[in-house]
Amino acid sequence: MLGTAWLFHSGVLNAVTMTACWCAVLFFASAGASAAYLTVSEIFPMETRAMAIAFFYAIGTAAGGITGPLLFAKLVGTGKVGDTVVAFVIGAAVMIIGGLVELTLGVKAEGKSLEELATPLSAEHAGIPSQRGAGTPAPVTGGAPG
Fold first, then answer.
1. How far is Cα 96 from Cα 81, in angstroms, rounded to an integer?
2. Which of 115, 94, 93, 102 is nearest to 36 (CA)?
3. 39 and 60 in contact (C-beta within 8 Å)?
4. How much is the mean pLDDT over the chain?
5. What is the pLDDT of residue 136?
6. DSSP assignments along 99-141, one per residue
7. Which of 46, 35, 32, 40 is nearest to 58 (CA)?
8. Cα–Cα–Cα angle for 20, 22, 26, nearest 5°?
9. What is the pLDDT of residues 13-40, one digit of tens each?
10. Lowest CB count within 10 Å: 5, 31, 76, 107, which one?
C-alpha cells in the first residue's frame, strides 16, 4: 500500500496499473484478515468462539465502517493527490500495525488441533485434563503400585 501511495504520488499509475496495485494489496490484506479470524478462533474455548468472532468482527466493522467514510471521503474528496496519498498511507499504517500485533500476540497453531490450543469449557468443567502438550509423557506423580 505504501508502494501504491508512492507510485500514485509520482503520477506513474493509470487506471489499469492502480487496479493491479489494489489487487496485490487486497490479496495480502485478505490473508491478514483470515489470519486474524483464525487467531480469534484458536485462542477462545470452543463454546465462546462464535461470540468472540462476532465481537471482533463487529468492532472491526464499526471502526472501518464509521471511520472510513468520514475520514477517507474527506481526504479523497478534496481532489488533491497529496490528500489521497495521505489516505493510502493511513491505510498502510493500519495494516502494518495489525501485522505487528499479530507478530506480538499471534498464536503458534501450526499442526495443532483447536482443542489443544484452547481447552473446551465443557472439558474444564468436567475435570478432563487439557490436551495442551499432547504427545509428551505425563509427569510421574508417585511410586510403582504394590
1. 22
2. 102
3. no
4. 77
5. 44
6. HHHHHHH----TT--HHHHS--HHHHHHTPPP-TTTTSPPPP-
7. 40
8. 120
9. 999 999 999 999 989 888 877 777 777 7
10. 31
Model confidence pLDDT, tens digit, residues 72-128: 888 888 889 899 899 889 989 988 888 888 788 777 777 777 667 666 666 666 566
Report the distance separating Cα 102 and Cα 43, nearest Å.
13
In terms of pTM, does the model score above 0.85? no
Phi, psi of 25 (to 5 degrees): -60, -45
Here the cell at position 52 is 468472540
Q: What is the pLDDT of residue 137?
A: 41
C-beta separation of 90 from 27 below 8 A = no
Give the count of alpha carbons within 13 A of 124, CB side only. Answer: 10
Q: Which helix (H) or strand (E) holds 11?
A: none
Confirm if 117 and 109 have CB atoms less than 8 A apart: yes
> What is the 8-class DSSP label of residue 48?
G
